[in-house]
Known about the structure:
single chain; about 85% helix; mainly alpha
Amino acid sequence: MSTRTTSMIFRGLRYARWVPVAAVLAETAVGAYWDLARISYVRESFDHLGYPMYFATILGVAKTGALAAILTPGHPRTKEWAYAGLVFVYGGAATSHVAAGDGHGPDKWAMPLFFAAATFAARA
């Protein structure tokens, strides 16, 4: 393998690392906005899962804080806590859907589980 090919592979791997990071940041930003705005999808989901609406505000503020921590340069411990919190948010969402009886098909719990895994990948 030539030096140029090796360089291109490493460059591709460096850029591929940003795929889960971008996915997690985009989902967290959109989710924070939706939670704080309490759009109809959030209200319907929270009603179905049995959560009070003030929990959406708590999640929206927590997601906004996680975004700020991840996007701010430095502070590796704060970033670690932000990623951990997002794993709990997405893992908790998947678990809540399964517990509410949505476990028969992956349409409700698969995406939160995907974002939990993407958060692990982004942190790695």
